[in-house]
Each structure stands twice: as structure tokens, then as C-alpha cells.
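pasting for ref
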Amino acid sequence: MSDLLTTGPDGQKRCKWVSQTEDFIPYHDQEWGFPVADDRWLFEKLCLESFQSGLSWRTILAKRDNFRAAFENFEIDKVAAFTDADADRLLQDAGIIRHKGKIAAVMNNAKRAQELVAEQGSLAAYVWSYEPKAEELGTPQALTMSASSHAMSKDLKKRGWKFVGPTTIFAFMQSMGLLNDHAEGCCMRTPVEAARAAFTRPAPL
């Protein structure tokens, strides 16, 4: 068996990272790699990936419901309206990661997301304009960043976004289906490929 695969309790072969905890199985099978065009969901994942910086995804996933409650379900307009009082409230919330810089980044990035929506019609249209080309990816799970994640990271930073480095953006792209990074032989590689083939890429204004 490939060293990129693990066999789950149901006998199915999955990406090796799932073996860290059985809690990863539903996330791996139902979310990771399936293409997303919903702005709220995309914004949530960008925020959670920024919170993950320096931590494990296991930590973030375990707190995801707490993050959703604390950040108004990551509704862009609601988070953009957060005030200093909200920042103080969040810093006291033991259910999330109480990192002042990352909390401030989410509040800032919501405003920057509003600007992107006004410019391009949706956050999804902007995100999918950076879909990686097959030739820049190569073997699944061989990369932690790509030319496209570098380009998107650079542009977001130019637009004033925070905590959006190229590795963070690549992890976001993996999870939101901008590429199929399930390992060869993983039980979800074919379903994700089919979903990507059927997916209508959102177009800008």
C-alpha cells in the first residue's frame, strides 16, 4: 500500500493524514476536495486556515462550531461590521483560538472580502480565477504551495488581506476543491474528480 494511504475501520483506503484521528474521516469523505462556490463557506475556510497557521487542523476542526458561533457563522457582512467590542469579546472566548492578530485579521479580511465581492460579483469568482493548472501540481500531495497559491497570496496581500501566505492559500485550495489532492488509490479521489468535472466555475462580473 502506498505510504500516502491508510486503511480505515471500514476497510476503505484513504489519504494517510486521516489516520491522525477518526474525526477526520467525515471531513475527508464529505468536504475535503469537493469544489465550493459559496462565498460564506469560502470565507469561513479562509478564516479557519488563517487560524490554523502554526497549529494543527485537528485543533481547528474540533473548535469549528465554536468559531462559527463566535463569528456570526462567518457571514461576511456581519463580520465586517464587528467593532473593537467584538474583538474584546472574542479574546475572552475560550472556545476559539484567542490570538489577537488572527482575530483582527478576520475582521479586516471581511471588509476586504466585501471589496472583492463589489469588484468581481462574488468571492467565489475571484477565488476560482486562481484555479491551479494541472502542470503545476504533478503528483498528489507532493506540494505545500504552488505557483497559483503564490499568485493568489500575493494579490490578496496587495489588497490588504492578512494571514494569507502561500502555504495557507494552498491548503485552502486543497480543501475547497480547486485541485484534487486526494492520493492515488484513495476512495475519495474518483468522486472528487467527478464533482470537479461537473462543477460550473463561477465567472466574474
